[in-house]
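Putative hydrolase, Gordonia malaquae NBRC 108250. Tokens?
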Amino acid sequence: MIDEAGQPGAVFWDMDGTLLDTEPLWEQVLVEFANRLGIEMTPTLRESTMGNSSPDAMTKVYDAALVPESGRDFEADEAWMVQRVIDLFAAGTPWRPGAVDALDMVAAADIPMVLVTNTMREVTDVLLETIGADRFVATVCGDEVEAGKPEPHIYRRAAEIVGLPVRRCLAIEDSPTGAASTFAAGVRAIIIPSAIPVPPRPTFTFRESLVGLTLDDLVAALA
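Tokens:
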């Protein structure tokens, strides 16, 4: 289940809300999108979109606005959203507390890392300028798999990339959607709730933040 050193064979990092504090910016764009459709973004609607892939989040807003299937221009609306988030992210995105030290700690242990995010590739590449693409052996985005989180495909793909069984990998997540994806994929996870509580599962280990995360914490979460 774990290697000779008792540590994970690979660590999979979620991005939005886990490493970077992007959720307020995504919320701003979704509020603007809802307004374009003639509705207000209610707390319930916003909560339902947390951690979703772009198509899933857009579908929920379309549904709330009662937009018929024939009136849903996913291609044009997604292009608008992508440009808006790129514009906002280009101004700089703050790190979540403890994120840089946690990344450095895992790297110092020579554990391969994969960035696993529901965010589309075009936006992820912009944010990697802040995080540092060289930290990861690979990145997997929500628009590069059959279905994004909460489905298991994105985590299973990450395990394939590093050539390890999922039981030897550890994920770090923040949202119910991302946590559900790890559970469906059979990947144990450390959960750092950032906005919405995550229901407990036997494969989840909860922490208040990434501050002070140690290699022993990773070993304990995988054991």
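The first helix runs from residue 23 to 36.
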